[in-house]
Structure formats: structure tokens, C-alpha cells
Amino acid sequence: MRDPHSIVITGASSGIGAALAETYAGVGIHLALTGRDRERLATVAAACRQRGAEVTAATLEVTDARAMSGWLCDIDRQQPIDLVIANAGISAGTGGRGEGEAQARAIFAVNIEGVLNTILPLLPALVARQRGQLALMSSLAGFRGFPGAPAYCASKAAVRIWGEALRGELKGSGIEVSVICPGYVESTMTARNDFPMPLLMPAPRAARIIRRGLDRGRARIAFPWPLYAAVRLLACLPPGLTDPLLGRQPR
Ligand SMILES: NC(=O)c1ccc[n+]([C@@H]2O[C@H](COP(=O)([O-])OP(=O)(O)OC[C@H]3O[C@@H](n4cnc5c(N)ncnc54)[C@H](OP(=O)(O)O)[C@@H]3O)[C@@H](O)[C@H]2O)c1
User: Fold this and answer.
1) Which of 5, 66, 155, 170 fits a 20 to 30 Å CA distance from 248?
2) Could you give the CA distance from residue 53 to residue 23 in angstroms, rounded to a whole number?
3) Does ligand 1 lie within 6 Å of residue 190's CB atom?
4) Is the CB of 184 under 6 A from ligand 1?
5) Any atom of ligand 1 within 6 Å of the Cβ of 20
6) Which DSSP letter does residue 93 get?
7) Ligand 1 atom, smallest distance to 200 CA
């Protein structure tokens, strides 16, 4: 959608979400931002206000369906929402020790239920208005299961497939759906990684690429293209060929 005026971004207190908030901030724009860290969220909100945006910021847990629904529906009543970016997410590696139950469940809860809790409460209002755009944050890690991050890859695959299906489901309803699949982007999430991250890019650059894709209503915003090509190739080759290669990846 070109020129959305009322925009919701989850996970806006750092990384890609913060960069997206600043990319969209401007005069005549209302931003509804969430995260958990009050201080970091307030800093992002202040930077967006500096750019002329009106900002509503709330510290919320995306897994809290009732709190998310209440907040989103309130915002929508006051500033009918044009664009929702379901961005909040977490990741964790296995450290070579395997993935514990608590870690796997937490990743699925935040990355999948958090996205559902962001999109579903708003869908009826958007459908009634026949207008709006949904952007779901997946990842290039959602095209193939990588041994170092089973739950993360699976959660991002679920989000990607759900978004693709929703796009078809909502075709003709006036609602656009885009799935975002970044490669490595500088953020709190990637700052912990102690392995080489090919084509790592700064968050503001990723945010500009995402905004350009959303302006054009692209179905899939996957970047950078060499890494996208590599994961597509890995995904379509037989596991017998690719498993030994991926088995050598850092955990
Ligand atoms: N960085 C990458 O290379 C990369 C690549 C592909 C996809 N992604 C995806 O991009 C999204 C943003 O990640 P990022 O890299 O920008 O990481 P980040 O800097 O760690 O940001 C994650 C954001 O999500 C919020 N969040 C996490 N758990 C939450 C919860 N339970 N409830 C509410 N908010 C929660 C965080 O809030 P607090 O910090 O306030 O807790 C933070 O604002 C994620 O979905 C991630 O999977 C990232």
C-alpha cells in the first residue's frame, strides 16, 4: 500500500522494528508501536515524534492474546489502521546441546502466536472497510530447516505459509498481504551470533527494502537476493545431498 497513514509495528523497541518505525515516521503518520522494554521503546517513539509522527507506544507481551486484541482494537477505533507489521520475534540456537522444550515452546509462542495475536483481532475491521495491508515477518530461515535452530526455522516457515495462504484467501477483499523474508540483519538478535553471517546488513537498510516492497504490495519481500537464491537452492535439493553440508553449520 502506498502512503499508509496509520501503522502498527510490533517488536518496535529494537532492530528491524525500530528501523521500520523510523522509516515510516513523518508528518501526518500515526504509529502504534509495541515492544517489552519500556525504555528502548520510549527512545524509538521519541525519535519518531522528532520526525513529526504521532506515536502511541505500549509495552505488551505479544503472546498475551487478550491484551493485544484490546490494544489493537482501541487503536483501530481511534486511527483506523492501514498497515500492520507483525514483526516481534525471538531466536535461539542449540549451542550444540540440542533444543530444550522450554526454548522450542517459547519460540513457537512468540513467533507464531504473537503473529496470530497481531493479525487476527484486526482482520474483521479491515475486511469490513475493504482496505488495509498485513505484513508478516518470516525469514530466509523459513525455507529450509537448519540444524542449529529447529524451532526458529519451523516458526518462520509457518508464518510464511500462513501469510501466503492469507494473501490468496483475502484476494479481492481490498486487503494486501506481504511476507517478509530477510537474511542477516544487524539487531539485538544477530549481535549474539559468534559465527560469520554472510551479507549482514544494517537495520535501516533492511527497513528501506521492506518499505519499498510493501509500497509495491509485493507478495514476498526476500533479500538479499544471493542468500535468497542459496536457500531456495538448498530447499529444492534432496536432503540426502544437503544434510551433510548443513550438518557442518554453527549451532
Ligand atoms: N535480524 C535478522 O537477521 C533477522 C532475519 C530474519 C528475520 N528476522 C525477524 O525480524 C524480527 C525482528 O527481529 P530483530 O532482528 O529486529 O531482533 P530484535 O532486535 O531482538 O527485536 C525483536 C523485537 O521483538 C520484540 N519481542 C520479542 N519477544 C517479544 C514478546 N514476547 N512480546 C513482545 N515483543 C517481543 C522485542 O521487544 P523487547 O526487546 O522490548 O523485548 C524487540 O522489539 C523477528 O521476527 C526476527 O525473527 C530477523
Assistant:
1) 155
2) 11
3) yes
4) yes
5) no
6) -
7) 3
Atom of ligand 1 nearest to the CA of 152: 47
- CA 227 to mean position of chain CA atoms: 18
Q: Among the atoms of ligand 1, which is closest to the Cα of residue 184?
A: 3
H-run or E-run covering 78: helix 65-78
Is 178 a pocket residue for ligand 1 (Cβ < 6 Å)?
A: no
- The per-residue pLDDT for range 64-91, each reduced to its tens digit, is 999 999 999 999 999 999 999 999 999 9
Q: What's the whole-model pTM score?
A: 0.97
Q: Which three cell numbers stand for residue 74?
A: 482501541
Give distance in angstroms: CA of 16 to centre of ligand 1: 7
Q: What is the pLDDT of residues 123-175, one digit of tens each?
A: 999 999 999 999 999 999 999 999 989 999 999 999 999 999 999 999 999 99
Give yes or no for a contact between 177 and 136, defined as CB atoms under 8 angstroms apart.
yes
Residues labelled catalytic: 152
Separation between Cα atoms, residue 23 and residue 75, nearest integer Å? 20
